Amino acid sequence: MLYLSSLLITCSLLQTLSAAPAIQPHLTPLDNGPTEPDPNYQLWNSASTTYPEPVRGKLGASILGPHNIDLERQNADLLAPPTTDHGQLENLKWPFSLSHTRLSEGGWAREQNTDVLPIATELAGVNMRLEAGAIRQVPRTMLYELHWHKTAEGDARISTMTPEGQVFVGDVSEGDLWYFPAGHPHSIQARNTTGDGAEFLLIFDSGHFSEDATFLLTDWLAHVPKSVLAKNFGVSDLTAFDHIPEKELYIFPSSAPPEDPTADMVIPNNTPNPYTFALSKVIPTKSTGGSVKVVDSRTFKVANKISAVEVVVEAGGMSSGEARVTVFASSTNAHTYNFQAGDIGYVPPSYGHYVENAGNTTLKFLEIFHGGNVQDISLTQWLALTPPSLVKAHLGFSDELIGKLSKIKQEVV
Fold first, then answer.
1. How far is CA 218 from the centre of its chain?
2. Which helix or strand (DSSP H or E) is residue 393 part of?
3. How far is CA 317 from the centre of its chain?
4. pLDDT value of residue 45
């Protein structure tokens, strides 16, 4: 399904198992060679044994100098773009595998922000791994965080406190998410239900966010005089603070939390709404090409700054968001990108785009919106609900074609 998005979208590909490329139809065949029935299909993929060259039909020529064959196999449509691509766009893709990884005792983290993807000014992402029992230290950020527990990656326990002193402690599992509003101190700890801890995706509502610049509890208290701490906590023995780490603890090992989350509660949860959302239990909305699960402030009340869609595209299906993605930025500028597992794409506001599953297995990915509600415009629905005379004048569509356009939005076809 082709889409015109009214909000910013970041797509993190959770699972891409590409094999034989699917053929993408094109309404007007372009003269790209006498034997090319469609000059715009994907020429190869990362699993191909094809020797990649910047050649499409009679266009292009071989590379005489050195080149990175593995990387070029992963980016077929950059090396040999479809002839519908044109002009120049800022880079819209970043693979987590190229991000610098911060290693700690108990886990690691790697991030995507404007340092590596300059166009992504509204959203940033962090891929984090915690061993069983490990803790991401209690931070306090001035940004809103949406956290997505990725597929089959263990369980975690989260805790947070509101400025009014209300508290929430809860558990999340595969496919679930949680949300921390700006300024709420919080923690994340991997449970030991699988023995491997947990891995998850963190989303922040500013592209300039850096995981290396969060407000950490140990860092703060290490820079407060013990006499001040004693007054603050109402104690007289300064040695009570001798064990505060001299350096910040970011990710660090600890004992796994108790199985029952109520055992971790100082007082019972008393926030008006929960800060976790069991998306794994939501029944997906199915369509001809796959399914979607939508979560925003209408269903997850506290998530008023970031919203999301979990998209499943069957082999050969199309949607707005992943695998083979073409983005149109107006003024004849359009580029096509190829995505593998762990890649991130960023689509600025009002850029037309689609995502096609170019493999022969099911594709699963996330769309993240900067805003409390998920909003987008379906090209098919837009044209179906536009006066037919205008559609004919613009695109030359026949009455028969216009009559087949769906007036109901189809998320995946």
1. 30
2. helix 388-395
3. 20
4. 87
Residue 404 has φ and ψ, to the nearest 5°, of: -90, -10
Both tokens of 398, joined, read: 């026949």
List 153, 199, 367, 411, catalytic entry: 367
Question: Are 188 and 156 within 8 A, CB to CB?
Answer: yes
For residue 329, the model assigns a pLDDT of 96
Positive or negative CA dihedral for 46, 52, 55, 60? positive
- Contact indicator for 403, 372 with CB cutoff of 8 Å: no
Token readout for 88 is 């120049």
Cα dihedral 8/369/118/150 (nearest 10): -150
Which residue ranges of the chain lie beneath pLDDT 50? 5-35, 151-152, 319-322
367 is catalytic: yes
Q: What distance in Å separates the CA atoms of residue 7 and residue 147, rounded to the nearest whole number?
A: 19
Alpha helix locations (H) across 38-120? 69-74, 76-79
Question: How confident is the model over 375-394, as pLDDT tens digits?
Answer: 999 999 999 999 999 999 99
Amino acid identity, position 299 = T
